[in-house]
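User: Small ask, check this?
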Amino acid sequence: ILFFPLQLLECGGNLFDAISIAVKAALFNTRVPKVRVLEDEEGSKEIELSDDPYDCIRLNVDDVPCIVTLSKIGYRHVVDATLQEEACSLASLLISVTSKGSLTSMKKVGKGSLDPESIFEMMETGKRVGKSLHIALQKILDEEESLGTSRQKVGFLG
């Protein structure tokens, strides 16, 4: 079980979108140490962790979705609405999209309604934006990974 304690420093913008990107990046950087179970002659078992910090397993994040928020304004919709655009929107659709463009979930938020035609248009836009978001995120994560141990350390771990 993994927990993601998040601390919000500001509540403007598309919160779910940013959180989904942060969670996917955190999972990409997660390394699980290799564990071996040793059994002695008496049948008792002992768990052994490798001392090598690089002897670990990576998590597969290929199917981890990112969330795209689409806000309906009039008869159109906007991706990543600004504060002024959010004020004009009565309904938004949160769409969870995998890197292959599959929708994993949707949630309507806001007091307004969405007609079926708008929902289908928003789903298609969400799929297209979600796929490009995954490509851009993976490119950045791969660039960071290629730096290896030579990257500059910042923060309390630096």
